[in-house]
Here is the input.
Amino acid sequence: MQTAQLTSAGWIILGVGVVIAAAGFVWAVSPPGETRIARWSSHHGLGLTESNRAVIAAYLRRTRALQFLGAGLGWVSSPVNISLVGRPFPLGDSWVMLAVAGYLVGAAVAEVVCLGRPRPPATVRAAALAPRTLFDYVPAASVWTIRVLPFATVILAVVYAIAPKNPQRGVDPSVAFVVAAAIVVVAFAALTEWFSRIIVLRPQPAITDDLLAADDAIRAGSIHSLSAAAVALILLSLGWTLLSLAGVTVNPQLGAIVSGLGVACDLGALIAWIVLGHVTNWQVRRGASLVSG
Amino acid sequence: MILRIDSSSAIPPYEQIRGQLATMIATGLLPAGQRLPSIRQLAADLGLAGGTVGRAFRELEQGGFIASRGRHGTFVSDHVPARRPDRERALLEAAGVFATQAVQAGVDPRRLLDRALKSIGSNAALDQTS
Here is the structure.
């Protein structure tokens, strides 16, 4: 069995990552400033009021802290695993992929915490008669990307299985592993959409217009974070499959093309994560006044 | 548009849902073709079982108030039976039911109405419209 250990460069990258994650965590757990709250609200077309400002501040604090914690733990998980077991994870030494996966888990845990809160007791309960759908909270392009892109991984796995291999290099990773990874990506995409729908259908008591708008913006923010991380992970998986194919193919031209595509997928993952998760402006497409309307 | 369920009421929750939706549809507050929330969404928001909301929807569909269009959702029917063009008349009927129930329960309906108006903050709106 092959053993592995961290190089000097690896330790430096690990250290830089830990420092960034720790600084990010400290920043995230501190109460968000007015500018940060205003910027987030502006991204979601939310008008801030006295009552919804506190809700947004608490949400930002909770989600950002768990996202940074998850990303940090993901980042260090590979070197810790190498130190303990003496070999990298089966999917390779992709610290970025593990950091994004950790971020996604952190974002999901933040939602689970929110879902688990008991409903305040009330004799009279109210609900707005406005349907909520996933497409109200996230761009359709994002939903369809998460639905369609995993099948590209499956197709690539099939190509990997049937492509002529270079006999001198051996087949690493194995065909079975690449096919299994592709199936996991499809299942992961389905799980992401299912979880997003749970967030959409989370109970939304009809309260006041400003709190309802804040609740909608929070749902949109959460689903954007999850979708962004999911798209990034799927693209990174696609990139991993392409680079694996480049490593085993006997055809140098095909190898060069798929290598380029693999790197493009990795870059695309980073861009998708930043753009969809942190830059995109999104106002929930529902009636402006549901309570008093 | 808000649906309210009083868990302390003697009227079963499914009947409260059915009655409110039927009144909203009959008075035109919910127009024909308006999409309604899914049973699952309403049940979650109101803290009720899906079967309770489902029963109300089934009865409304049997009464011709709403129509299910499969995976596209549930919509207010285009041909609501006995649709009344006069909103005031329909609301008067609903108010009559309310007043009767209040008197039967030994409660002054005017006092309840005042409290209800205050709770939804409609007094100001009523002043503006009158």
Summary: The interface with chain B takes residues 119, 123-132, 201-206, 290-293 of chain A (CB under 8 Å). The longest helix of chain A spans residues 209-248. Chain A is about 70% helix and 0% strand.
